[in-house]
Design brief:
Blueprint (H helix, E strand, L loop, with lengths): L1 H25 L19 E6 L9 E5 L4 E4 L4 H11 L2
Length: 90
């Protein structure tokens, strides 16, 4: 019985350390984009933007519309850079 309690305590201790070590990687919940929109997005429809994580396979700018929808765009596209500058100066 006493051996079981000690074994359980050791297992719980090991499990708590493994969760703590995995936490920094598990907390990255930023979305990745499966593709980019080809359509130019009008400035008056966009509320904000953010860049996807460097861990994503496809680098993207995510534009958030005033109505809550989101669209992914190519950060290298000229119209995307212009829109990002416009949003950043406000």
């Amino acid at each position: 019985m006493r051996l079981s309690v000690v074994a359980l305590a050791v297992c719980l201790l090991v499990a708590s350390f493994s969760l703590a070590l995995a936490a920094p990687y598990g907390l990255d919940t930023s979305p990745c984009c499966p593709g980019h929109t080809k359509a130019k997005i009008p400035r008056h429809l966009v509320k904000s933007h953010f860049y996807t994580s460097s861990k994503c396979p496809l680098a993207s700018v995510v534009f958030i519309f005033k109505k809550g929808r989101q669209a992914c765009a190519d950060p290298k596209a000229e119209w995307v850079q212009t829109l990002v500058k416009s949003l950043s100066t406000e």
